[in-house]
């Protein structure tokens, strides 16, 4: 008789990184590596380049979101400073982003500018909480079709929001936020188009595209804005400008202050704050991943989220709007030769210098020019090639993409992300369940060596050559709730002639509690029938999960491999026969 023993489970887990390592800003890492004058020179050039790109973008995004151009610049200065000072990416550039335009505009229309600032501060606290709870890694699990879909949807909404400024329309009623309500209003106002406004917006686009083609290293956006402002000032063009609508921009930063707070107001703004935090975490970590891909470096996701939280709180204290990592400006920073986070800090310093020097000139910038800038931003946001590839890739990917895209445009960005993620999760579960399989066979008995039981070369061999008293089930693939029901129904079909059941887990990398509970129920039923159950080949992690749910002796016994399990099974049968 063969005696079997149950091994002790001591699953090994890699040591967790130290807390300081998880949240150490990349700035400290770069300085520890050794920071030279040559590095400072590279960062200064990159910081100036990014600041030149960020100046018109920050103003345009703020105006589109219902804020003032000054708030956009303040956000880029304060937010950009903290993102680079505390962030987990060497090259991340923080500031206002086009992806937030829709959410910020809706929040500002509903709760006022003070509500938008308070929601930004709340989002900062949420982002810090996500980072400190080490949840940054899970943000990366957003399916790719979801990110492509909501980015394309946001681009459509941004472009639609700029049609009024692009064409110089005079609306008879306030411009609605939802797209389906907005389109009829814009259509009815088409007879009021202004030729000069169209000419300025079209010229802005053409100048930017021309410089991008023939002088790609020149700051096309800034040149186009400067030309439009210069022409407006020189010829006194009858165009709506930053000065005519907002009274220009201040030449200094405001004093920090807290927005009005109350319990009901905080509760009312909580959905907006959560949406800001969710989108900000996705956008910033995607930007950090892009920078990693361009440089071969690796960012610290949780440290980055904590920095994004501090940046949002800091920007809100100075009257700014939402801050996130910006993909276009981060990529510009990398291409400009930045060495580390000092470039982002200097970008914030250069922006502050700009408003101190050129604030009076900003009053002449036409809103049509900034609308042209945003129209190009919207066009560049759409990952057109990826969109078409996903449409052709599979029906599931196309469904996730179109659902996210449609809900972003016609419903709500947060709802679009949640629904897209839910559909993606269901698709993943379905695909994973199809990879999990189970097969059954009864082992051959070698006539020359009765104690040696081997796996059959052909599972369809005749019963005369097989040991009908032992039944072996092999499970392969991840054994989880998506596959537990189908596999459980197979395992329950055990004939009365079988006297030992072996379940081989050698090809199971993972088991969840649902699947383990199914095995537990099977073991209880088998025990009532007097049928011993042996689990073979389970890894330490899988066996630890099974033992944790009390799948232990006398319900089951464990063997390290199938051969030992079959030997133990024959020993039990022989013991009964004696």
Task: Write a concise synopsis of the structure shown.
This protein is α/β, with parallel strands linked by helices and 578 residues long. Helix content is 63%, strand content 6%.
Characterization of the model:
The protein folds into two domains: 40-428, no CATH class; 436-577, 2-Layer Sandwich (Transcription Regulator spoIIAA), CATH 3.30.750.24. The longest helix is centred in the middle third of the chain and has 33 residues, at 263-295. Helix content is 63%, strand content 6%. The strands form three sheets. It has a five-stranded mixed β-sheet with strand order 3-6-7-8-9, sandwiched between helices. Strands 1-2 form a two-stranded antiparallel sheet. A two-stranded antiparallel ribbon has the order 4-5. Helix 3 runs antiparallel to helix 14, helix 7 runs parallel beside helix 8 and helix 7 runs antiparallel to helix 16. It has helices at 19-23, 26-33, 37-64, 69-86, 101-132, 136-139, 144-167, 179-188, 195-214, 220-235, 242-246, 263-295, 301-317, 327-335, 342-358, 367-381, 384-393, 395-410, 413-435, 481-491, 513-528, 540-548, 562-577; strands at residues 94-95, 324-325, 437-441, 444-445, 453-454, 470-476, 500-507, 533-536, 556-559. The protein has 23 helices and nine strands. The chain is an alpha/beta fold and 578 residues long.
């Amino acid at each position: 008789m063969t005696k079997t023993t149950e091994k002790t489970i001591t699953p090994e887990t890699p040591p967790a990184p130290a807390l300081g390592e998880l949240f150490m800003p990349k700035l400290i890492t770069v300085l520890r590596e050794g920071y030279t004058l040559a590095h400072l020179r590279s960062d200064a050039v990159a910081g100036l380049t990014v600041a030149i790109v960020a100046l018109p973008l920050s103003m345009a995004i703020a105006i589109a979101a219902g804020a003032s151009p000054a708030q956009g610049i303040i956000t880029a200065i304060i937010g950009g400073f903290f993102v680079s000072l505390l962030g987990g990416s060497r090259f991340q550039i923080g500031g206002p982003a086009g992806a937030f335009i829709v959410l910020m505009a809706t929040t500002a229309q509903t709760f006022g500018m003070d509500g938008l600032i308070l929601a930004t501060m709340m989002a900062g606290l949420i982002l810090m909480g996500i980072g400190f709870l080490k949840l940054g890694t899970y943000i990366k699990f957003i399916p790719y079709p979801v990110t492509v879909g909501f980015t394309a949807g946001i681009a459509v909404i941004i472009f639609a929001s700029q049609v009024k400024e692009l064409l110089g329309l005079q609306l008879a009623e306030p411009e609605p936020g939802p797209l389906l309500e907005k389109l009829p209003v814009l259509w009815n106002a088409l007879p009021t188009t202004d030729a000069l406004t169209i000419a300025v917006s079209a010229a802005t686009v053409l100048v930017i595209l021309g410089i991008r083609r023939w002088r790609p290293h020149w700051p096309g956006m800034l040149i186009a804005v400067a030309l439009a402002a210069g022409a407006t000032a020189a010829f006194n063009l009858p165009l709506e400008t930053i000065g005519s609508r907002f009274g220009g921009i201040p030449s200094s930063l405001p004093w920090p202050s807290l927005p009005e707070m109350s319990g009901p107001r905080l509760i009312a703004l909580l959905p907006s704050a959560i949406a800001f935090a969710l989108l900000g975490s996705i956008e910033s970590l995607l930007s950090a991943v892009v920078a990693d891909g361009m440089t071969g470096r690796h960012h610290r996701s949780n440290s980055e989220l904590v920095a994004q939280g501090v940046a949002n709180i800091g920007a809100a204290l100075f009257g700014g709007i939402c801050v996130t990592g910006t993909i276009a400006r981060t990529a510009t920073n990398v291409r400009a030769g930045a060495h580390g986070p000092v470039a982002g800090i200097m970008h914030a310093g250069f922006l502050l210098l700009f408003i101190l020097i050129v604030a009076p000139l900003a009053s002449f910038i036409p809103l049509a020019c900034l609308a042209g800038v945003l129209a190009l931003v919207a066009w560049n946001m759409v990952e057109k090639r990826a969109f078409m590839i996903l449409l052709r890739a599979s029906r599931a990917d196309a469904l996730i993409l179109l659902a996210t895209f449609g809900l972003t445009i016609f419903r709500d960005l947060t709802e679009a992300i949640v629904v897209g993620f839910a559909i993606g999760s269901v698709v993943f579960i379905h695909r994973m369940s199809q990879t999990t399989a189970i097969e059954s066979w009864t082992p051959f008995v070698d006539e020359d060596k009765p104690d040696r039981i081997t796996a059959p070369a052909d599972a369809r061999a005749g019963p005369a050559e097989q040991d009908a008293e032992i039944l072996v089930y092999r499970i392969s693939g991840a054994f989880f709730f998506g596959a537990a029901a189908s596999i459980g129904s197979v395992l329950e079909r055990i004939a009365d002639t079988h006297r030992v059941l072996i379940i081989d887990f050698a090809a199971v990398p993972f088991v969840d509690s649902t699947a383990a509970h199914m095995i537990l129920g099977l073991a209880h039923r088998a025990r009532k029938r007097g049928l011993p159950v042996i689990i073979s080949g389970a890894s330490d992690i899988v066996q630890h999960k099974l033992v944790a749910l009390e799948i232990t002796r006398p319900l089951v016994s464990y063997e390290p491999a199938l051969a030992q399990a079959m030997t133990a099974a024959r020993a039990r049968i022989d013991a009964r026969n004696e």
